[in-house]
Amino acid sequence: MKRSLKFLPIRFGAIALSVLIFSQSALADSCYYAYKAKRDNPLQLHYGVIQVRGECDPASARSEVSERLQLRGWSLLVLLERVNEAELKQYKETAGEFYLRY
Q1: Rounded to 5 degrees, what are φ and ψ at 37?
Q2: CA 11 to chain centroid
Q3: Tens digits of per-residue pLDDT, 63-83?
Q4: Are residues 53 and 28 in contact, defined by beta-carbon separation less than 8 angstroms?
Q5: Is the pLDDT of residue 23 over 50?
Q6: Is 24 helix (H, G, I), strand (E, B) or coil?
Q7: pTM for this one?
Q8: How many structural domains comprise the chain?
Q9: 67 and 93 fall within a common domain
Q10: Model pLDDT, residue 30
Q11: Which range marks the domain in which residue 26 is found?
């Protein structure tokens, strides 16, 4: 019995850490933003919806979205609005091929 009690705090700590990691990733999964981007030579514009993996505040999201788009040759013009999960499907038709693409 003492052996089980001795390891209980370690097991509890591991469980608590797992719950914390899972809950934070679940929160990050629910952060989406609508945006507009461009590419030069020739000029191309697109409207899209993107999932933000990091912090969901506008400044952090703008930075993350800008970096991810730049990796694919696009420049972020404007981060339009945060999209909640209940409204997400409504944006699919408008964003077309850029719906959750990046």
Answers
A1: -140, 165
A2: 31
A3: 999 999 999 999 999 999 999
A4: yes
A5: no
A6: helix
A7: 0.70
A8: 2
A9: yes
A10: 80
A11: 1-30
